[in-house]
Design a protein that fits this description.
single chain, 345 residues, alpha/beta, Four Helix Bundle (Hemerythrin (Met), subunit A), Rossmann fold, 2 domains, 7-stranded mixed sheet, 4-stranded mixed sheet, 38% helix, binds 5-S-methyl-1-O-phosphono-5-thio-D-ribulose
Amino acid sequence: MEEESAFSREELSWLLAQSKVPRPLIFDEGALKILDQRILPGKIVYIDANSWEEVALAIKSMMVRGAPMIGIAGAYGMALAATKDPGNIERAAIELKKTRPTAINLSWAVDRVLRIAMENPEGAISEAREIEAEDHERSFLIAKNGSSLIKPGMRVLTHCNSGSLAAGGFGTALGCIIWAKLIDGKEISVFNTETRPYLQGSRLTSFELASADVPDTLIPDMAASLLLSKRMVDLVIVGADRVARNGDVANKVGTLQLAISAHHYGIPFYVASPRTTFDMSIESGKEIPIEERPAEELVIFNGIKMAPDGISVFNPAFDVAPFNLVTGYITESGVIGAWKIPYLD
Ligand code: MRU
C-alpha cells in the first residue's frame, strides 16, 4: 500500500499516538509480546510468545482476538515459524489457521506470509510487519469514512469489541466512533452491549471508550431491542469477522438479533470492516464456518458454576446477518452497498 498511502508517515504516527489504549501486539527481538486481553481492564499484562505454537495458543485462548488483530498475530506466528522452525512452516500455517476459523483475516494473513517464507524465510518478518502497517492505515481510513455518517449529537450503538484491541488504528466499527469524537470533535454518545459470555463489550469496548472520553452507557445484550424500539439509538455500527460476496456478515453472536431489530425499527445498521475481511471465494454467509467455543465459557463465571452439572451446551461465537438487513459497509474505499462488494479490489 506504500504508493497509494492516504496518510503520510508523520500523520500515521500522530494518529497512533492519540490512542491511550495499550497496543495488543508488539513484535520485538524475535518474540511476539501479546497483551492478555482476558484480564483487561483490571490488569495490563503482556506475555512473550517465542514460537508459532505459543502464538497459536494465545489466539485460541482469546488472549488476542478481533478479526484483523487475529490476522496480524497469525502473520507474526508465521514469521516465528519461518525463522525458528522452518521445517514445520506448512504445519504451522495449518495449525494457526485452525485456531479461530470464522475470521477470514487469519487465513489470509497466514497464507500471505507463507508464500513469502517459502522463498525467503527472512522475508517473513518484514511481510508480517507490512501486514500490520497496512492494517493501521486501512483502519484509520475506515474510521475516517465511518465518522462521516455520525452527526453531532448522535447516539450510536455497537456490539462486541472492534476497537484498537481488535484491529489496527483506532479499530473498525469502534474506530469510526473514536474518530468522530477524537479527531472530528463531535459530541456523540454510545450504548454498548456487554457481549456475553466473554464480555468483550463491558471489559474492552467500555475501556476503550473511556480512554477516548466518549460518553458510554453499558447495556445488557438483551436490552438492545428495547433501546431501538424507544428510538434511543440513531445508528448501529458493528464490525465483521467475515463478509461473503453477497454481503452476508458473520460477526459476534448477537449481531443477527441486532440487525433484525434495527431493520424492524428503521434504524440504520452499518458494518465496518477492511477489504481483508471480505471473502470473495464464498457466495453467501451459508458457507461461513461458525466457531463453537468450549462449554466452560458459558457455564463457569469467575470460577463459579452457573448451570447444573452435565448440562448440554451450544456456544457459537458468531452468527450471520443477511445482507438485506445491512444499510451499508464502511470500508477503507468508502461507504458502499452490498452490490459493490464483488468490485472491491
Ligand atoms: O471472538 P472475538 O472477540 O474475536 O470476536 C470479535 C468480534 O466479533 C468483532 O466484532 C470482530 O472481530 C470484528 S471487529 C474487529
